[in-house]
From TrEMBL:
Upper taxonomic lineage: Bacteria, Bacillati, Bacillota, Bacilli, Lactobacillales
Protein name per Swiss-Prot or TrEMBL: Teichoic acid D-alanyltransferase
Compartment list: Cell membrane
Enzyme class: transferase
Entry GO terms, CC: plasma membrane
């Protein structure tokens, strides 16, 4: 078994033209069938299984066993809690189910920080699969999700287009699409959108991300490290190059995932909506990695606010929301990884959202006072909009510099470059 897995090719999802060639070829029967108003569920499942298997071929074969073990673990947790929830609703059983569901992810995230190497439980896509199961348990707790069958759960968990890096879908939304094929007119519209998403994704990932990530970023990093110090002008170039590379690479990947999903008759939610024209940080998180930010909003932030208000932890509603913002975004930072720069990134955005919320309330108070005094409200014109976008864009770009980990390298692991070769100081 191991030698067979080692002999398989290792195909990074959406990483090369040949991946698209084989995937689109495999999906031809799916497209034809959906055109005729039928869904080939068994064939779709087999295609997903084959391409998932290819994700873990070659040197990544241990991840295949980690993936299978993870699916078995999550199946036991989800269906055990579903069976329990039909007859009872004790909060401690709910907390235990959530903890057991995220336990593999906790181990995977903490292992590198503790022993300096990756966990054997880790595999490509574990974080995004974990969002699916935890959301299911929470919706079962809320009484919104009932009677999940194993086959439907299995199709949801191994759905190929989004398995490695999202977008993060919800079971009820996915299952509604998966239950039956769309009508011909709707599917033709989905195919048209799929072609556009795939073309735009290719432009983002293979052209723009290549320019910023492969051509510019290594050069400006070298210059910034050579300049040294706590901060320098070349670090600003790193900030923008990395920020654009992050967007085009991730948005391109997400467009591929959504496009392939549409070809399979599933309306996976889009992940990005022009994030760099956001007017404030709250608007930004309604546009950036939306499936992640909405997941944290629904399953972390809103629940924190509910618990704080129910327990009357804080007297002031604004304090409640501020603490929830900070905890929510800090947790998101930890989710990315247990390093100071990921955690700092989360705290930075948490504080930014608190400031944004404060200014929104302050502006309403000022405008109310100005109205009583017979004065016009604070200006809200195109110039103000442009300034807001400019400020938000640069605040976000600085947060991406934190996120990149480059400051960790610049401050704590500096290099001196001599004839293009990095030498540690």
């Amino acid at each position: 078994m191991i030698s067979w897995l080692q002999s398989l090719p290792n195909w990074e999802p959406y990483g090369a033209p040949r991946y698209f060639f084989f995937l689109l070829t495999a999906l031809v029967p799916v497209v034809v069938s959906l055109m005729l108003g039928r869904r080939l569920k068994i064939y779709e499942t087999l295609v997903s299984l084959v391409f998932v298997l290819m994700m873990f071929g070659g040197q990544t074969w241990p991840q295949f066993f980690a993936f299978i073990s993870y699916l078995i673990w999550q199946t036991i947790i989800v269906f055990s809690y579903q069976r329990y929830r039909k007859n009872a609703n004790n909060k401690w059983f709910f907390y235990a189910a959530v903890l057991l569901a995220i336990l593999p992810l906790i181990v995977v995230k903490l292992t590198p920080a503790v022993i300096g190497q990756n966990s054997l439980l880790g595999f490509l896509g574990i974080s995004y699969l974990n969002f699916r199961t935890v959301a299911m348990i929470m919706e079962m707790r809320d009484g919104e999700l009932h009677d999940v069958t194993f086959l439907h759960f299995f199709r949801f968990m191994i759905f190929l287009p989004t398995i490695s890096s999202g977008p993060i879908d919800r079971y009820r939304r996915f299952d509604a699409d998966d239950a039956q094929a769309p009508d011909r007119a709707s599917y033709l519209d989905m195919v048209e959108k799929a072609v556009w998403y795939l073309m735009l994704g290719a432009f983002y990932k293979f052209i723009m991300a290549y320019i910023f990530g492969s051509l510019l970023l290594p050069q400006v990093k070298q210059m910034a490290l050579h300049a040294g110090g706590l901060f320098n002008w070349w670090t600003i170039a790193v900030m923008y190059s990395y920020g654009f590379d992050l967007f085009f690479d991730f948005a391109g990947y997400s467009l591929f995932a959504v496009g392939i999903s549409y070809l399979m008759g599933i309306k996976t939610p889009v992940n990005f909506d022009k994030p760099f024209i956001a007017r404030d940080l709250k608007d930004f998180w309604n546009r950036w990695h939306m499936s992640l930010s909405f997941w944290f909003r629904d399953f972390v932030f809103m629940r924190l606010v509910y618990v704080f208000m129910k327990k009357k932890v804080f007297k002031n509603r604004n304090t409640t929301s501020s603490v929830a913002y900070l905890l929510n975004m800090t947790l998101m930072g930890f989710w990315h990884g247990v390093t100071w720069y990921y955690i700092a990134y989360g705290i930075f955005h948490g504080v930014g959202l608190i400031i944004n919320d404060w200014w929104t309330r302050k502006k309403k108070t000022i405008n109310k006072s100005r109205k009583k005094a017979g004065q016009a409200p604070l200006p809200d014109n195109r110039l103000i909009h442009a300034v807001s976008i400019f400020v938000t864009f640069n605040v976000v770009m600085f947060s991406f510099l934190l996120f990149s980990g480059f400051l960790d390298q610049l401050w704590f692991h500096p290099f001196v470059y001599h004839h293009g070769l990095p030498l540690r100081k």
